[in-house]
Amino acid sequence: QSNVTIYGSFDGGVRHTTNVDAAGNNNLTMGSTGTYNSNRIGFKGVEDLGGGLNAHFTLETGFNTGTGALDAANTLFNRTAAVGLGGAWGSLDFGRQYTVAFKTIAAYDPFGYKYPGIADAVASSAGTRYNNDIQYIGTFGAVTARAEYALGEVPGDTGASSAKSIGASYADGPLALGGAYNIRQNATGTLDTNYWTLGASYKFGPARVSAGYVNQEAEQAVGADAKTRWMWAGVNYAISPAVELTGAFYKTKLTGATTGDKDNLMLGATYALSKRTNLYGLLTNKKFDGAARALSAGNARQRDIAVGVNHLF
Amino acid sequence: QSNVTIYGSFDGGVRHTTNVDAAGNNNLTMGSTGTYNSNRIGFKGVEDLGGGLNAHFTLETGFNTGTGALDAANTLFNRTAAVGLGGAWGSLDFGRQYTVAFKTIAAYDPFGYKYPGIADAVASSAGTRYNNDIQYIGTFGAVTARAEYALGEVPGDTGASSAKSIGASYADGPLALGGAYNIRQNATGTLDTNYWTLGASYKFGPARVSAGYVNQEAEQAVGADAKTRWMWAGVNYAISPAVELTGAFYKTKLTGATTGDKDNLMLGATYALSKRTNLYGLLTNKKFDGAARALSAGNARQRDIAVGVNHLF
Amino acid sequence: QSNVTIYGSFDGGVRHTTNVDAAGNNNLTMGSTGTYNSNRIGFKGVEDLGGGLNAHFTLETGFNTGTGALDAANTLFNRTAAVGLGGAWGSLDFGRQYTVAFKTIAAYDPFGYKYPGIADAVASSAGTRYNNDIQYIGTFGAVTARAEYALGEVPGDTGASSAKSIGASYADGPLALGGAYNIRQNATGTLDTNYWTLGASYKFGPARVSAGYVNQEAEQAVGADAKTRWMWAGVNYAISPAVELTGAFYKTKLTGATTGDKDNLMLGATYALSKRTNLYGLLTNKKFDGAARALSAGNARQRDIAVGVNHLF
Questions:
Q1: Which end of chain B is more exposed for a tag (fewer CB within 10 A), N or C?
Q2: Where along chain B do its domains lie?
Q3: Chain B residues with CB inside 8 Å of C155's CB?
Q4: C257 touches chain B (CB under 8 A)
């Protein structure tokens, strides 16, 4: 038992969203994988092997606030299942884990992956997690380097269904920078998706500004590549030790195979009851054009109001 | 890890039941969600926020003794997934949780929800648990007040699929009283189910007597309401600190849309090996008439013999 | 929390296998229930009841390294879900648990059930685990006796789908011996499968030799019984406290209803980074004839190379 730490996050609240279906109805919901912070319960451990070497693992389950259901059918450790070795040289991990792109973007998403189902940074992260992933991370001074190879497990074609990434982050005092490149193949190994991201954040006093850019080009069997660009900018402002405001604008732009735009303006506030528990509130105003209306059941606009409590354990 | 307590209950034993199928065969089984006490493993925690306020959560999994299977497919925390805040004013919780009716009846079910699949009190509890439930509980002296609103999450109709309840319990010395009212709507918001319960228990010396009544009226698309009444009375008697006998009679009465009766006479004994572990034994004699025979594969009678060990951890 | 111990094993690595499909393609994979040691996270506890008596339970989950998925859909505690009482007289357990044959063979499988999906000892163990199993184990000096009855839960026929076993193991100094007998019935109670196993291992200095034999005869609705014999021999050699080599040869022989052979030559090495973490490597050379080619997608040969890290917690 001393070898295992149990931790998690549990978010309870309600969300009101306009225009959730083709008829333009509103809905009031609680059921979600976490509105402000994604729900999780995890088991992790680190063993000191001596000589600076360690062995470590993480097993993390995602669940639904309103129903207690697993995030993904039969995938108990959908959020992370990874084991590896670490040392001064870095860490080498095997299993299901966050992508290099996801870890890179974390430094310059203004909402820091909060409101994962509402903000657009998670959607931009080249898949969020990969199965069968071998990932290296090394930190050398202000620089963190990352590389991964997610096995496709297709007999006779080691490229098919695989993903490969490299990335680097720089963090020094108030400044954080990051970038990543990723290439994925479809299940038959015939079509590539190319992906890159760049971004930065800068802190001054109680404020932090962040901006990011993602460019993805997915080859299609017929016709032009499907290009998706995500871009965003935002600011965090700590009014007091307990109260923080975050405002951000996310734009998603589809070109090539389909054409469309999503604009997502978000304004959030948190009130910390402790280091582990806060109250949160969010307002959004989302605009959808062209093919991006597939994200809004065909509607041109959606607005959200969400309030709740989030508890870390 | 210090933030999380792991707890649970595991019940192992065998049950012999007569007339389990249309051919009138008997069956000997172990597989169940717990014969005497329902199986569970849970994770819970409470954080002191200062000023009398706390944050708390419970995540509780149900599993099958004989197979290790989840009680409900893909619902990891089928028994409870709730997070909330508490204080002198009470507690406000969000998530999947026991209904107000269930918590009310607990005080006057002679078997105290033991033998959940055999005794009839669980079946009478207005759904046992609700998804997407917002629940308030406050205790003021001898009185506990409860109210809940379980979101229906149907776009454009906040009433459809929702459930609402209020309840109150009184506990003072040997006496416990309770009552609750509940109203639920079907998925299209066109049919209501009305529900109320009342009951009491009284302790004198080594004995406790309990009695309860539940009245439910479910509107039907065509024809009369389906009325179900559950009523029961029973007695617990502590022969010694280790040995307790419980006898109870549960009647279920269907009228209106269908007509039928179930009579369930139960006699149980427990022998405590410790505060956490006991041996148990149960005899039942169940009679089914009319539409209630749907509960017994068409048979007029069923008898159970169950023995086993239950361990709390 | 003090009542529950969390433990487990997590294996991360890659495996290259030749001839995995009818086209004779090779595959490189990570996804598995554990290549060297089967993945698990478990919760267990023992309560001292006084007078030498105890209550105990185990709940153990199996998961996939590459995906975090449950080993078996919706079966959270697929590896073990058992509760029981123990004392000087032995232990009596109820639930899903390893078969008597599995526990018997453990003493004379040279790979000690490592590489569970590659070595053939697990496949030979009369089902590995039974649902609804009542199992007795008692140890008296050098002898351990085992007996089990796994309920079939078929109404009207207590024999159908049931399994019954007896077994005995002897362990004294360098010598270990074991044998078990098992009989299973099919779901209609019309066909029996008879099974027995015998084996031994002997340690001298840094080496241990093991050999085992299993004979299974499954009645068929039409025609001759399907006979399967598994036989193996192997040696472990500890080159140093940290390095161990294991070599073994497993033969599977099908006769009667179908005819075929599988030969499996395995050579493995482990390097212990600590008592809890090791690096492993494996080479195999497998030959398939006749009906045994159903195990190799019709191919006459398969070879494996596997390397990885295994961490116990």
A1: N
A2: 5-312
A3: 20-21, 23, 25-27
A4: no
- Contact between A110 and A234 under an 8 Å Cβ cutoff? The reply is yes
CA C91 to chain centre: 21
- DSSP-assigned letter for residue C275: S
Compute the distance between CA of residue C16 and CA of residue B312 in angstroms, rounded to an integer.
Answer: 45
CA distance B189 to chain C (A): 32
Q: What is the pLDDT along chain A (313 residues), one digit of tens a residue?
A: 468 999 999 999 999 999 999 999 999 999 999 999 999 999 999 999 999 999 999 999 999 999 999 999 999 999 999 999 999 999 999 999 999 999 999 999 999 999 999 999 999 999 999 999 999 999 999 999 999 999 999 999 999 999 999 999 999 999 999 999 999 999 999 999 999 999 999 999 999 999 999 999 999 999 999 999 999 999 999 999 999 999 999 999 999 999 999 999 999 999 999 999 999 999 999 999 999 999 999 999 999 999 999 999 9
Q: Which residues of A245-278 are buried (b: 16+ CB within 10 A; e: fewer)?
A: ebbbbbbbbbbebbebbbbbbbebbbebbbebbb
Contacts C79 to B, Cβ<8 Å? 68
The alpha-carbon gap from B74 to the nearest alpha carbon of chain A, in Å, equals 6
Q: Do A158 and C28 touch (CB under 8 A)?
A: yes
Q: Which superfamily does CATH assign the domain made up of C5-9+18-312 to?
A: Porin (2.40.160.10)
B101 three-class SS: helix
Q: Scan residues 141-160 of C and list those with Cβ closer than 8 Å to B.
A: 151, 153-156, 158
User: What is the DSSP-derived secondary structure letter of residue B275?
Assistant: S
DSSP classification of residue B108: G
Residue of B27, B67, B296 for testing the chain C interface, max C β-carbons within 10 Å = B67
What is the third-level CATH fold of A5-312? Porin (2.40.160)
Cβ of A121: how many Cβ atoms within 10 Å? 28
Phi-psi bin for B223: left (phi > 0), alpha (psi -120 to 50), beta?
left
**Token output for B117:** 């699949």
- Cα atoms in the Cβ-side hemisphere of radius 13 Å centred on A282: 28
Query: Which residues on C lie below 8 Å from A133 (Cβ)?
Result: 30, 66
Beta bridge partner(s), residue A213: A198, A231
pLDDT in tens, B263-293: 999 999 999 999 999 999 999 999 999 999 9
What is the distance between the alpha carbons of residues C169 and C213, in angstroms, rounded to a whole number? 14
ipTM entry: 0.97
What is residue C299's three-state secondary structure?
coil
Interchain contact, A50 vs C26, CB within 8 Å: no
Cα A73 to chain centroid distance, Å, stands at 20
Residue A131: CB atoms within 10 A of its CB come to 24
Option in C6, C12, C67 nearest A83 (CB): C12
Task: Give yes or no for a contact between A44 and A57, defined as CB atoms under 8 angstroms apart.
Answer: yes
C-alpha–C-alpha distance, residues A100 and A178, integer Å: 11
For residue range C229-285, what is the model confidence (pLDDT) as tens digits? Answer: 999 999 999 999 999 999 999 999 999 999 999 999 999 999 999 999 999 999 999
A–C: how many Cβ contacts below 8 A?
134
Residue A99: is it exposed, middle or buried by C-beta count within 10 angstroms (0-12/13-18/19+)?
A: buried
* Kind plus residue range of the DSSP H or E element containing A103: helix A100-105
**Which residue in the block uniquely carries the two structure tokens 């589809």?**
A254
3-state secondary structure of B131: strand
Catalogue the E-assigned strands of chain B.
Answer: 5-17, 27-29, 40-50, 53-61, 80-87, 90-98, 129-140, 143-150, 163-172, 175-185, 192-204, 207-218, 226-238, 243-256, 260-272, 277-290, 301-312
